[in-house]
Amino acid sequence: MRCFLALPLPPGQTAQLAALTSGLPFGRPVPPENMHLTLAFLGERPEPEVMAAHEALATLDAEEVRVALGGLELFGGRHPTGLVIGVADRAPLVALHRRVLARLHGAGVMLARGRYTPHVTLMRFRAPMPAPDAARLVRFMADRGGIALPPFTAARMVLLRSFLGAGPPRYDELARYTLRGNDFSDPG
Q1: Is 184 domain-assigned?
Q2: What total number of domains does the chain contain?
Q3: Domain residues for 116?
């Protein structure tokens, strides 16, 4: 089964992001219900490995993460294939990603190590992009590229199964994992 671990986004944020991408009359927007911030892509795995991943993640003791989405970026180089929104402070997510990878590797679920760039995919494009669409995209990025959404607290992770086919992918939640709340109150 094809799986990944993600942080879900609050509905208010997905609505704002969907409204933002409605300004582009081309490309394939990611449906709001599919928007997420991937922590680890497991890829195609046999069921016993997915169960091992679940058991490892169920005992992960990690704190909630404050996430501030901001700054549009294009993935794909000269021929963009995706429009994404980045994360203002990546360090907490990178640290959580590393803890997740260590936990998965300890359970025998080996993932390719690579640079982790936290982001939310908003749209996908076919390459090469026609010149009029490329010009519209340049204007869109100039007008809206500096977007910054209000921060939110990610209090849970979800293990999702992905089904590919015609149309957008379909995701089924296999498990959810609560992140520990930060207690900043004065104990005295």
Answers
A1: no
A2: 1
A3: 2-178
pLDDT tens per residue across span 91-140: 999 999 999 999 999 999 999 878 899 999 999 998 889 999 999 999 99
Starting at the earlier edge strand, list the strands of the sheet with 170-178.
36-44, 2-8, 156-163, 170-178
Cβ-proximal residues to 1 (8 Å cutoff; 6+ apart), any chain: 44, 45, 46, 47, 50, 161
| Residue where the block lists tokens 């999702």 | 160
pTM of the model: 0.91
Residue in 106, 109, 1, 113 with CA at minimum distance from that of residue 59? 106
**Nearest of 4, 19, 93 to residue 57 by alpha carbon:** 4
Residue 11 lies in a domain: yes
Determine the Cα–Cα distance for residues 158 and 143; give it in Å rounded to an integer: 33
Return the ∠ at Cα 84 (arms to 91 and 131), rounded to 5°: 145
- Whether omega before 128 lies within 30 degrees of 0, making that bond cis, reads yes
